[in-house]
Amino acid sequence: MSILSRHRLGASVFLTLGVLAAGAIAASAKSDVRLAGDLSVVAVWSGAEQASFNAVLAGFEQRNPGVKVTYASAGAQLPTVLATAVQGGNPPDVAVLPQPGLMKDFVGKGALKPIDFAKSTIARNFSSDWTKLGTVNGKLYGVFFKGANKSIVWFNTSVFKQAGIAKPPKTWAGFLKIAKTLRASGTKAYSIDGADGWALTDWFENVYLRQAGAAKYDLLSTHRIKWTDPSVKAALRTLAQVFGDRGNIVGGVSGSLQTGFTTALAQLFTDPPNGAMFMEGDFVPSFVPAKAVAGRDYGFFAFPSINKSAPAVVGGGDVAVMFKDSAAARALMTYLAGPEAAEIWVRRGGFSSPNKNVPASAYPDPTTRRTAAALANARTFRFDMSDLQPGSFGATVGQGQWKLFQDFLANPKNLDRIAARLEAAATAAYKAGK
Q: What is the pTM assigned to this prediction?
């Protein structure tokens, strides 16, 4: 999947506040002088994200002065780096992986150690959906340290005000209604980054979770039902109400298919704004113009309910796993499952934690506070479906879901053919993975 969708996103970092918080949290925690040794940790994070994660690891070292942790960033090459290390018999002690599928791959190879010792800590701090995501074949292998809420619609506040829209919609019917109102007021409702196939899968996943329900979502995620299932076609039909509103998409369909994430988002901040709404994750504020102020110039609302569906969140996250079993590695995994570790990065900015016991006050601004709370407290959370599926089907440019949802945006009337092509691509990908 793309760097954006995997949340390798740069963000403004509140360094001074973060360092002070790390020191305060670490100093207040009880150290364990009994632990000793060296630990190696690998993840994708670099730059500002690496600095923040190093602050988290420094907090662990202060609690456990006998342990030295060395972090290495593998960037986008993480799967290859880890696979090579496992094959060579020298994996890191701990790694943080960008999606559950990779964790399952390593479990299948017998490379990961279960973390049942952390079950009680994880149960206290995470919803059952997150625990299930970290479980493979009935054993707990991962703790989701970092998360992302991808069920958000962002909007230009002045455009809404000029159109007479006093409150954001809560239902799909209300969403479609304000889209017509926005168009009538002179601003196109939807700015869609159609050049990024991963963004189009996010649209489908949000509609499908709300319309078909979590149980069907799980079945489709693992290809236990076909992409020609009536529930899939029903979701495509609903999504076509947006994709088929041709005159209400910034740049039209052809323009949208040539527009990527940052350019599509920027359409909300042109003078005058070209678009009113943009659907994407909680990482969006990192990419708005510096002069735009959250709450004043732009706002957000949860992806709307469909057919009275209960609140639900589609998202992503990074899962910590253990390759080598030792007392120090167990301590680090337990630490990453606690709110103190997450709070260090939260206070530095650019981070959402699925840990429900991280205090809301730790988030540096009201926007991240609300989006993170929705993520951590979601009763129904489902991981980005395309990240759960074989990469050739769910996460490859120019093929699989990314290409086929672009084709659907181009022609949303032909949903039966798109469903059949999605099923054919899924069947081939799952067959190749066996």
A: 0.81
